[in-house]
Amino acid sequence: MRDPIRSEVVIIGGGMVGLSLACGLAGAGLKVVVLDSGTPAKWLAAEFDGRASAIAHGSQQVLAGIGLWPRLAGQACPIKEIRVSDQESPWFLHYDHAEIGDRPMGYMVENRVIRAALLQLAASLDRLDLLAPVAVAQVVEEGPGVRVTLEDGREITAAVLFACDGRHSAQRQRMGIAVAEWQYRQSGIVCTVAHERPHRNIAHERFLPAGPFAILPLLDDDQGRHLSSIVWTERRALAPAMTALPDKAFEAELARRFGDFLGAPAVIGPRWCYPLGVLHAERYTAPRMALVGDAAHAIHPIAGQGLNMGLRDVAALAELVVDARRLGLDVGSAAVLRRYEQWRCFDNTLLMFVTDGLNRLFSNDIAPVRLGRDLGLAAVNAVPPLRRLFMRHAMGVVGTLPRLARGEAL
Whole-prediction pTM value? Predict the structure, then answer.
């Protein structure tokens, strides 16, 4: 039998959160092994996912701190303004980054671009090994660490294991951690559109009776076409049929919701349809193990915060692990993992309830409720200090921030 692969950290899941955590830890000098069942070459195909992610300013700081942002900056579209409106109401909420400085509020980046940059960064780090595709057969706590056995017989030993394997985490099930979850009667339709007029780096969130409809700015393509990413929340019973419409019929439905302020939208590339729901793990840790990102929590995309939550997990966990190692402490100790859970659980739970409440509040057409929420939007918009506070929340720069999110090195 071959000797085990020895590491300090083993990460199950090589997605955007898992590889970000791996690159942060390996860049700080820890030995890291990442395991994933997928084939990395397929992750770079547009057909694999097709989505784009909103990267808040605080998350951009995290990506800069782990050395990833220089590989992304040229392919990231700045978000300089956000406009929130409710159907055809004359009242709205408008955020302008110029109110609080010269930094964009965030960026839109295609997921495949983020994955490509992460794979390049991972390949450049001597202390990071990505094993994929592989299948995990068993994970056991063993003495002061964990032992992972792969189906091909290889074994990896480490002081601690981090599960970054997504909403349907197999490792979470192995850890015996239950989840609270519920499904919305909604699905998300995602596509990219070209439009006649430039978006001017403005993101739009429109609340319609079926749910939020987001128009998110992307960089112009090589042909000079103006592009935006669409995240369209639709009733689950209608969404599959809507997604499957012929191009012209789909674009007509899209235009009804999109409006004509950017000109007629034309769909580019495939469309995707995802069921929407909420999930939160009852706890984030087990002996020598912790959940990170979607393995611990998944929320409605109403505010584009899913990946940002995961990157804040990464920043907090990386700080605690790196500090423990520098002090000569056990990086997988119960104290380190408990501190991570305490740091991140409240923030994630709060955001989960906020996004759920916003979705329920705005996804209806009840006249008194509609009037109340419209007056609320107008009130926030009319009070500059309150508006700026909400802007800082959207930028991910409020609360007890890890060093990476503050723009400091690990």
Answer: 0.95
